[in-house]
Write a structure and sequence with these properties.
CATH class: Alpha Beta
Structural class: alpha/beta
Helix content: 25-40%
Distance between the termini: 8 Å
Order of helices and strands: EHEHEHEHEEHEHEHH
Shape: globular
Oligomer: single chain
Radius of gyration: 16 Å
CATH topology: TIM Barrel
Strand order of the largest sheet: 1-2-3-4-5-6-7-8
Strand content: 15-25%
CATH superfamily: Aldolase class I
């Protein structure tokens, strides 16, 4: 079964608290969106120690839409993140790969934007454990899903059968089955869960769609 996890994109501490408590009953690992206002224009409230405190034991990963991911990723991993995705568009490739395959033991993965071709990361796939395919442009919640993501998932799965593929952005119960069929392992849903009047009902709709 493909895993569906909620994403938390919050501009303020109050918004973060509200969204975390909305999805806590799901009992799922959450993805924290960290945006610095430089990699893209938007920015999130995401101080590491405060975020970890508010999570109150929830397992989590981070999606780092930041301009200095080589610095930020190990800090989040040290704080307890199960994985940290950094953007191929924002990082020096060899430095990232060396870190991902070294002391961080595969916690770090590469994310690619909709306009970034898969061949940008092909040389790294045999050495990576995880890849994140963006279904929208990074930085803002609620965008329409870009179908190119389905093609990218299929291409990556054909190239590297064992890599964990996550898709983030614009995920709905309608497109989730196509992504699962293409080879996705994890689907990250932001507004479809956090902005729903009943996140548990929305999550169950995802489960029904993926059966």
């Amino acid at each position: 079964m493909v895993e569906v996890i909620p994403a938390i994109l919050a501009k303020t501490e109050d918004e973060f608290r509200t969204k975390i408590e909305a999805v806590r009953p799901l009992g799922q690992r959450v993805q924290i969106d960290v945006i610095d206002g430089r990699f893209v224009e938007n920015a999130t409230w995401s101080p590491i120690s405060e975020v970890v405190t508010l999570l109150r034991g929830l397992p989590f990963e981070v999606h780092l839409m930041v301009s200095d991911p080589e610095h930020a990723a190990p800090l989040w991993v040290a704080a307890g993140a199960e994985s940290a995705y950094v953007h191929a568009e924002a990082t020096h490739r060899e430095l990232l790969i060396n870190r991902a395959m070294g002391r961080d033991d595969g916690h770090i993965g590469i994310a690619i934007n909709p306009e970034t071709p898969v061949n940008r990361i092909v040389p790294d796939l045999p050495r990576l454990k995880r890849v994140l395919v963006m279904g929208v442009s990074p930085g803002w919640s609620g965008q329409a899903f870009q179908e190119i993501a389905v093609e990218k998932v299929r291409a990556i799965r054909d190239l590297e059968p064992t890599v964990t593929i996550t898709v983030d952005g614009g995920i709905t119960p309608e497109n989730a089955p196509r992504l699962a069929e293409a080879g996705a392992d994890i689907l990250v849903a932001g507004s479809a869960l956090t902005d729903h009047w009943n996140p548990l009902e929305a999550y169950e709709e995802f489960q029904r769609a993926l059966r």
